[in-house]
Amino acid sequence: MSPNLDSAIKSQVPALLLRRLFGASRRDEAMQLSRSPATAPVGRRRVFVQTETGCVLGMDLDRGDNAHTVKRRLQLALNVPTGETSLTFGDRVLENDLSFIRPDSPLLLTRNSINRSCSTPCLCPVSKDFEQKDCSGLVEMLGCSSSCDRVKRLVDDVVIAIRSGVDPVPISSGLGGSYYFRNIIGDRVAIVKPTDEEPFAPNNPKGFVGRALGQPGLKKSVRVGETGFREVAAYLLDHENFANVPATALVKITHSIFNINCPVNGGGPAPAHDQKQQVNSKIASFQQFIAHDFDASDHGTSSFPVAAVHRIGILDIRIFNTDRHAGNVLVRKLNGGTGRFGCQTELFPIDHGMCLPENLEDPYFEWIHWAQASIPFSEEELEYIRNLDPGKDVQMLRRELPMIREACLRVLILCTIFLKEAAAFGLCLAEIGEMMTREFRGMEEEPSQLEVVCMEARKRVAEWEPFSATAEQEEDIDFQFSMDMLGEYNDVIRSPRFNGSGFKGSSFRSPLSKLVEGVDEGNDGHEDQNESDRVFYTGWNTPTAPSNHNGSATKIAMNRSADEQLPSSMCFVRLSDMSADEWKVFLDKFQELLKEALQERARAAAGQRMKQRLGTSCKF
User: Fold this and answer.
1) What is the per-residue pLDDT for 546?
2) Are the C-beta atoms of residues 110 and 556 closer than 8 Å to each other?
3) Residue 513: which residues within 8 A CB-CB, separation 6 or more?
4) What pLDDT shows up at residue 313?
5) Which residues belong to any copy of the PI3K/PI4K catalytic domain (predicted)?
6) Which of 160, 266, 470, 486 has the fewest CB atoms nearer than 10 Å to its CB?
7) Minimal CA–CA distance to 411: which of 578, 207, 198?
């Protein structure tokens, strides 16, 4: 039975108190809620503030509002001392200026006390006296643009279905909470994944809890609550639907089916019959449902189109996908017809929540073992790669997803440069993937060939004269995860074995010697890119973005105990702690070293082929 959407519901904040705080009468509220964005008063913006335990509050900001007025309102509404909270927007901790916050942006309110348990419920008192009707839309798109037209149509279908009594269906598989939303005839049209129901998030319905939003998640470089916008980023970066990523957007969505582990009035989970009556608002990813026959793990890969595998691989390399297993490649059989590439199967990549990490980790590319990945790129694919512009991609993501972190954008830039250089040099998809993948030797994890080049580039940046004088005075890192919160990350970075990753005084051997070891058969002499292309890359810092290198403005406290719940992944090189100037120099050094590495790889492969032709018995 669908909930009565017109009935009174318990708000996640004291409604009457908020009305006094916001200075709005009932008539003013009704007029404002009836306005479309085009007719809203100039300077007024609607934002969504989410607490680290998942509560979502939508509020309208006037031109004169700043972070301090928002925090004062939230302090009284949520009963949280202002001195123990931070209002954050991506990398930035908001202070006085909210002018750069776009309408419909999600903000995060976090508590700074490191001794607080992650399972602490919201301190928001709720009683029957504080009830209001949910006057906002059932589904509101956050930061949508013309690229989301397909999603807008799906949203309209879902809203009509909900109002007609067609309920969504929970998905039992997976570690996080996800739901099928249907149209009016009952067909699945979208998959919704709330950010606060991700693995280890506060409201995970499958028991995988223990962390607050914004803390390290399943992978340390992907924070809890931030996989949703990564799903959107993958769709936005799939230009012209090159890889077939389903249409995806970030939404604020309201329904009683969503899970709440800690009700806003404290205590344990609410009884089932009460949960059905309580309508919960969530920030979530909203992705088009793709009708399919099976996934790649249930079917032999020999029938997959070469072009489809290449296109998915090109996307995975650009976004440094750490979770491309066969289960998140959907396969649709085209009985009696042919697909995009003249084949009877069509592939759809999904589940991109673990892409664009904040640090280089060990990616996972299932396709690296498929025969199609060893076939050279077609001219059409090479042309697509040549036309990729990471500078424009970064500007687009900052415009569409302004909450995205600078470190994620740096990973995108680095991997796009790597893809363009490697493809121009003549490497196939499998060879490029191998250079990005780590190896285990004995019981130790070795850095990938890509990471080794980055480590040497960081070393050269540290030794570069303008930076060497100040490098020794900057041991503490205030950008992204603080050094004392990195756990075993910190140990690896400071380890003498890998202290060539940008720290002065390193005795680490040349990375180019490692690239020769264990190289598989590859391509010899190929055309190099001209010097002008390499110089052009150095401008990919996109200085139009707001500066995120002020330590006091970007430091976010973390709960250290929560960071120790999962095995740590090793971090051999960090990109997030470089200043803008250092980042430009790093890209320049990286491209120089990468070209050398590719040439060294070709020479080693040629020597290996010559040895195989001569045989081991030949002596000179």
Assistant:
1) 40
2) yes
3) none
4) 98
5) 165-469
6) 470
7) 578
pLDDT, tens only, 316-347: 999 999 999 999 999 998 876 666 666 778 99
Q: Exposed, middle or buried, 206 (CB in 10 Å: 0-12/13-18/19+)?
A: middle
Mean pLDDT of 369-392: 96
Name the one residue in this structure whose structure tokens are 């890998």. 498
The answer to whether the beta carbons of residues 173 and 208 sit under 8 Å apart is: no
Amino acid at site 31: M
Nearest by Cα to 223 from 444, 52, 446: 52
pLDDT, position 481? 40
Nearest residue to 260 (alpha-carbon basis) of 279, 247, 241: 279
Q: State whether the Cα torsion 494-495-496-501 is positive or negative.
A: negative
**Residue in this structure with the two tokens 């190289």, named with its chain if needed:** 519
CA dihedral of residues 45, 46, 50, 56 (deg, nearest 10): 170
Which residues 6+ apart lie within 8 Å of 101 measured at CB? 45, 47, 61, 89, 94, 107, 402
pLDDT band at residue 34 using 50, 70 and 90 as cut-offs: very low
Residue 21 φ then ψ, to 5°: -65, -40
The rounded distance, in Å, linking the Cα atoms of 406 and 542 is: 11
pLDDT, average across residues 8-31: 40
The rounded distance, in Å, linking the Cα atoms of 483 and 473 is 15
Q: Which of 98-107, 158-167, 233-242, 290-299 has the lowest mean pLDDT?
A: 98-107
Cβ burial, residue 513 (10 Å; 0-12/13-18/19+): exposed
Residue 173's Cβ-count burial label (10 Å; 0-12, 13-18, 19+) is exposed
What pLDDT band is residue 14 in, cutting at 50, 70 and 90? very low
Cα(581)–Cα(589) distance, integer angstroms: 13
Mean pLDDT of all residues in the chain?
74
Instruction: Calculate mean pLDDT across residues 468-478.
Output: 50
pLDDT tens-digit profile of 193-218?
A: 999 999 999 999 999 998 888 888 88
Residue 239: both structure tokens together: 């230009």
CA nearest 161: which of 153, 150, 172, 171? 153
d(CA 89, CA 56): 15
| Strand 106-111, strand 45-51: pairing | parallel
Which two structure tokens, joined as six digits, stand for 93? 């901790």
Q: How many CB atoms lie within 10 A of CB 180?
A: 16
CA distances to 36, 47, 62, 94 from 44, in Å: 12, 10, 5, 18
Among the listed residues 221, 154, 163, the one whose alpha carbon sits nearest the alpha carbon of residue 411: 221
* Range list of β-strands (E), 37-98: 45-51, 56-61, 85-89, 92-93
**What's the pLDDT tens digit per position in 442-463?**
778 899 999 999 999 999 998 8
